[in-house]
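This part of the workshop introduces the protein records we will be handling. An example says more than a description, so a record of this kind follows:
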Amino acid sequence: MRKAGGLGLRLFVFLMTGMILSGIITVMFLTKSINLDKFYDVGAVYDVSDTDFELPGTNWYYDYEDELIVAQAKDASCNYRMKHGRKNWGYLYFYIENLSRETPARIDFLGEDSELLYSIDFVFQNGRSVLQLEDKDFYAYKVTVQDPVSFAIDGVQFREREYNIAWNQAPAVFAVALMCCFLLMLLTVMLFRRCRVGRSRSFGKNSWLMTWQKCYAYVLERCSVLFYGLSEREKSLLRWLFFLACMLLIHFSSLRGWTVNIASQKRVVLMLGVLILCIAFLSWEWRNKIPDWHNPLAFAWYAVWFLCIVSDFVVPKSLRYLGIFMLFSVEPFYLAWNSMKRPERLIREFLSALRWFYWGACIFCLFFSPLVPGFRYIGIYRNTNAFAGFLVTANVAFLTSLDDNLGTEKLKKRVLVENVFGLVTIWGFLMLTESITSLTAYAVEWMIFLWKQFPAEKKKSYHKNLRGVLLWTVISSAIVMTVGRWGITYVPSMIGTSSTIEEREIQPATGISPFSLKVEAAGNNGVSKRVLEKITSGEWYSLFTGRTIVWKAYIRNWNLFGHSGYQECIDGKRMHAHNAVLQMINNYGIFIVIPYLIMLYYSLKYGIMAVFHKKRIRMNLFFVLASANYVVQGLAEDIATPYAFLSWLMFYIALGGIFHQQSARTET
């Protein structure tokens, strides 16, 4: 089984490497450009937002029922402002569909004071129209059609260079490139194996991994004396405080933008690293045994951070030091965790700190952050989706604690009420945020929790506790739906403690862009209608709330070593990729996708295996829930940006326990 699993993993790495190299070669061949900084080399691109096409003009309006632009009379026109920082472009690409009839048209390019700079006449027709622009800065453009027509604008792009790629040649070029890459890789593997003849192929005690761990063990042994003499209870309390400090630091660094400023970012990374190292020093219990992390997850973990360090060295990042932070603070934490006789203590302390942080957030919401009717709730963040992501992360803590206590003979009422009330309040907040991605993660977490309840036979106490859970769920729901909703709506204004973030303005995002850091308008009938509208729209743009435009912008800018920051996506605004894999590729280069995907896959696989491991520890549900939460949120939200989200911190903390669970069941 191990041999077959290892063969499958090597085959996956082999295929992925070949396909990536072949894709790079194919695109460079078709674009006639060898460019390692941007494989898809057409220069800078400005995608005009779809919401701009809904603007009214002179005898020009948007028919929302048929989703068509209607020009009602001759010389109907509409003005569009340039929202991108750049004002000089080489080409304009117009994509038209469902045109009722062809007609002459004109585009006027206007200066900063709306003066006419120059005009271009062309034929308005279905399909793509490419217009070469003059070398002048323009701030707006006016589209005029001569005859009354109806049509849909599929897209408008301003490009630095002309886009002439014969994509019909792509399959043949890709096939040839793939064959050449595979042959070259096979030759390299054969030469490498020949050089290894006579050498041991095992990874025993003298392997680089074991040597690396022994160095950390020496450091941990020496530094653990800093906390020598403390009782276990005192160490537990200190770890709890350090975990809570990590959460507060990450929250405030995101809220205040500390990670944007390089000087502040250095301090944040240093403080976070010191806190995690202190937890490692407190947890170290030397047992003359170092866990052997010889499994695909560990190797993928090391590969990801090695590539991060290389990328940081070549391309300085706006969010830097991630690889160094992981290898020199998180890895000693993993090693110390796995040296503990009762490693479940660390999980319990982390989740306890997270629950306390959540209750503190609830108090802040009750007294300082009012619910504004008609708008999605923002909670303790500037962004609604960020608050929703925090909620489903806190949900992991309550589900894990509830699962760990359901089989207890004498379940304390305080523990029961705390967990049930926490789960119900999280559901209430999530409904106010209307975040579909986080609601999906919430549903997945509950499915995993319920799935774990079925396989084993349950004691009588379990069913008794389950009845208590159902009773308190009903009571908590009634409190949250009445007193809770009334409280966050009226209490802050009644006692005069309502506070707002300086940049926060209550206005709908409609007409601005599909993404807004401001509060967004809520659906008329709640989240159910919002979900139904997305599913029945039949358009990818509506289903993913415009994320497809952002994904295209990030895919267009793939390169070898990554970029320094976010990409310009909609209206020239820089924003994150809204996808963890694309964000990692953008930050650290195309090849990081291979170990990163392996890490995600094995974190889920080993998380599930930890539930059924013969030497499983208590609270083992935490591993699979943390991994599932990270993966599901990462499909459509920013979860890969370091030092910014508690979901990110929880996932990489959980990996330490997964390494330990697999030390006796190594896959190669």
User: Anything to note?
Assistant: Residues 200-206, 501-518 have pLDDT under 50 and may be disordered. The CA atoms of residues 102 and 125 lie 5 Å apart. The first strand starts at residue 45 and ends at 47.
